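ugh ok fine here u go
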Amino acid sequence: MLDSELLTTLLVSILIMAILYSSVGHGGASGYLAVMALLGLAPETIRPAALTMNIFVSSLVLYRLNRAGYFNWKIFYPLALASIPMAYLGGTFIINDTSYRYLLSVALLIAASRLLIKTEEVSRTVSPKITYSLPIGAGLGFVSGLTGIGGGIFLSPLLLFLRWTSMRTNAAIAAAFILVNSIAGLSGYLSMGHDWPDGISYLVIAALCGALIGSELAVRRFTPEALKKTLGLVLIIAAIKMFATA
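structure:
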């Protein structure tokens, strides 16, 4: 059970992360993980809490982007077909505290690089190849269920690198990918008899409120690229702390 002071700090931090991430087009899964890591929460709290917040926030992001016509089923379904069972499998894995901290450190560093490296809009897209989609989906799905990071922040640069999507379609597919894999990963985790962390409903409310605010209001104190770099540095700090305390 989290004490009231830690829970308040956690809720405020999650709210701020959700506002900042959603204001630059991200769901914020890596940010939530970074906050929980910096506050010293245990893996048995971090993983299910992150997966649960992923489900609600990515649903909101996907709803808005789908209504705007940016979602592409042709690109998404092969990725999801391979990722969903692997995310479930990843969720069933029992890993000790030290291994989880090392794994999450690496995941956060990769996510940080995604924020620190500037991405450019794709001028012309090409049709996806299923021989690439299936292994990409399977690999990222497993990582999603195992760590709780969602997978979207890893998928996005790959889609742009392969020239499969524009920026807007990229965001919609990443949101859908996070949603289905988080549901599968959480299902796998709970199927092993784990309990829900205390206070998880409050975390979800904080994340949703932040996402609603951030998606409506632009952050005016930083340019989007400067804000991404700031968030990337936060992830690096969290990764270093996780590694140092493993």
